[in-house]
Amino acid sequence: MAGAPGASVAVPGRDVRAARVAVGALFFTNAVVFANVVPRLPYIKSSLGLSNAALGTAIAAGPLGALIAGAFASWFLVRWGSARVAVGSLVLMAANLLLISVAPSWGVLAAGLFLAGVCDSVADIANNAHGLRVQRRYGRSILNSFHGIWSVGAVFGGLVGSAAAGLDLALPLHLGVMAALSIVVVLATGRRLLPGPDDSEREPVHREAASSASRWWTQTSVIRALVVLGVVGSMGAAIEDAGATWGGVYLRDSLRSGAAVAGMAFVALQGMQALGRLTGDRWVTRFGERAVARAGAVVALAGMALALSLPSEATTVVGFGAAGLGISTWIPAAMHAADSIPGLPSGMALSIVGLVIRVGFFVEPPVVGVVADSTSLRWALLVVPFAAAVTLLAARALTTRVEPAPAGRPAPALAE
Fold this sequence. Notes:
It comes from Motilibacter peucedani. Keywords: Membrane, Transmembrane, Transmembrane helix. This is Fucose permease. The chain crosses the membrane at residues 21-41, 53-78, 85-103, 109-127, 148-167, 173-194, 221-239, 259-279, 291-310, 316-335, 347-367, 379-399. By secondary structure, this protein is mainly α. The protein has one domain: Growth Hormone, Chain: A (Up-down Bundle). 75% of the residues lie in helices and 0% in strands. The protein has 19 helices and no strands. It has helices at residues 14-35, 41-47, 52-70, 73-95, 97-101, 106-138, 143-166, 171-189, 204-212, 220-254, 259-262, 264-278, 280-287, 289-309, 313-327, 330-339, 348-374, 377-380, 383-394. The longest helix has 35 residues, at 220-254. The protein is globular. The chain starts with 13 loop residues before the first helix and ends in a 22-residue tail after the last helix.
């Protein structure tokens, strides 16, 4: 993001560039871990003899764990810092794949997904907190690119999981190998994260406001802003989860697709989401977070309207792809706007918005499962256009324009 014409552009030092690579690796690995499970959900559902409602309830254990853990994420960041919390939670999340892979019953599966949600929630807040630290050191927007890398990781993990499903690989072998590789990547790259407190790169006035805001929760305007931003993110989460949890089930059970094709709804959603996020910084800078989010809501609504009104393998994959492109900037925009609110302790705004976002992950699976059992999964997937319509309204909380860094002002502490 350039400043005014003629303004000097700060060049990040080697340590900052290395930290950006490391944060990208954490986002990538975070996505890969659970994305490998998604294409195996139809197999898990079949092998355990679960109904749609039972599968949806088990999956909801993940968001439940995320909701509980999200309430403590800010405390973890204050005590140990985003770097240590990100690495530790991702290592535990990867190791938990082994429990999911050998689950012999609904209860054990739900327990494994609960722990996955706990680790994912904490890792998500820590990754974003550290990514925003690196963004402040760069002096320009790069957060969408981190989320784009997450989407690339989700596509990669989904493709690996789909291939494993198509080859009928044993679940413990498949997830065990991915767990080991993920732990190695996290430990190797985590050493390059930024040292020091998470508020090191903030403006002094922002740090002073945070240290003096002992009763921020009594400020109605702050709470309202955080909740609305959380709603924007949670609508994106609901649509993303619809593709992750139910896209494959819909293709396999309703459209009679094979195992490899069933995974393509998730891959299409994540692939187009990755494209939107990797190019998102440019579009958000030009048109503003609010306009881009609303345009995306229209794209998501139109895509899923096509998929549900003309059901086929092709329209379903296209529809979920359009939904992925549409939601691509919603969560990064909500996180950035929340982090910009002054007067909150380190990580608190991200934790609160993340908590509201997790409500979307928690509510969507069982609701869709129950509606699907009562009517059909095709009707239940109307949750996607509904979420898009909500975002058209809630996006007013986002910025109309992202301003470039002040002219002539370098990003802090960039010298090697």
